[in-house]
Amino acid sequence: TPPLQPFAIRFGADNGTLEPQGPTLQRRMSDLEGLFADRRAWEQAVADGDPVVYTVVSSPVPEAARELPQSITTIFPGDTGGEFWMTKGHQHPDPQGEIYLGLEGRGGLLLFDGDRAEWLDISPGVIGYIPPGWAHRSVNVGDEPYRFLAVYPGSAGHDYGWVLTHGMGLRARRAETEATVGAETEA
Ligand code: PAN
Ligand code: ZN
């Protein structure tokens, strides 16, 4: 397909919509198998209505070489076995950088290069930089939806198996006494 022509994308700041809009997806609890530390709590949540954990709305820019696609992710508030709701997380098979811009709510960006893990607090107005080669997962640590814009190279690809094999190095848990960030080393 030939490169796109210049165009503007209208962003709905209050609801995270994009116009024009490309593909959208919903990830339910059942799509997050093997990711929460507490498997029983995950099974229970799937049995208890299999809630939508997050949605991803994309612009019409395709995931193609030299293009620069964008998407808005909304993670709903909640925890499973005390672990905050989060995205699956992935590596880019063709390691390239990516940026996230916080739009609404309170979240975090968990980064893992297979050796070192890092945690970045993301809130509206904060840009998180994901260097090439770092797997990344987003976490909602607040009581409202957490929403961010992602901008990434169209040829980067998405590898979800890597996180199932390697983990993410850290987990973000709800503290026992209050709903604050509790990023801990993986058991
Ligand atoms: C983001 C993510 C999005 C959903 O657009 O794809 O937040 O997370 P998962 O892909 O891990 O389910 C991004 O990092 N794109 O490269
Ligand atoms: Zn990514």
Topology at a glance:
Layout lengths: L9 E2 L6 E2 L4 E5 L10 H9 L4 E7 L11 E6 L3 E2 L2 E2 L13 E7 L2 E6 L4 E6 L4 E4 L4 E6 L5 E6 L9 H6 L3 E3 L10 E3 L2
Antiparallel strand pairs: 1-2, 3-4, 4-5, 5-13, 6-7, 8-11, 8-13, 9-10, 9-12, 14-15
The chain binds 5-phospho-D-arabinohydroxamic acid and zinc ion (ZN).
Helical stretch tally? 2
The CATH architecture: Sandwich
* Unreliably modeled segments: 177-181, 183-187
The helix-and-strand class reads mainly beta
Structural description of this entry:
This protein has one domain: Jelly Rolls, CATH 2.60.120. The protein has helices spanning 39-47, 161-166; strands at residues 10-11, 18-19, 24-28, 52-58, 70-75, 79-80, 83-84, 98-104, 107-112, 117-122, 127-130, 135-140, 146-151, 170-172, 183-185. It has two helices and 15 strands. The chain starts with 9 loop residues before the first strand and ends with a strand. It is mainly beta and 187 residues long. 5-phospho-D-arabinohydroxamic acid (PAN) is lined by residues 56, 71, 73, 87-90, 98, 136, 138, 150, 152, 158.
List keywords for this structure.
187 residues, mainly beta, Jelly Rolls, six-stranded antiparallel beta sheet, 36% strand, globular, binds 5-phospho-D-arabinohydroxamic acid, binds zinc ion
Quick synopsis:
With 187 residues, the chain is mainly beta.
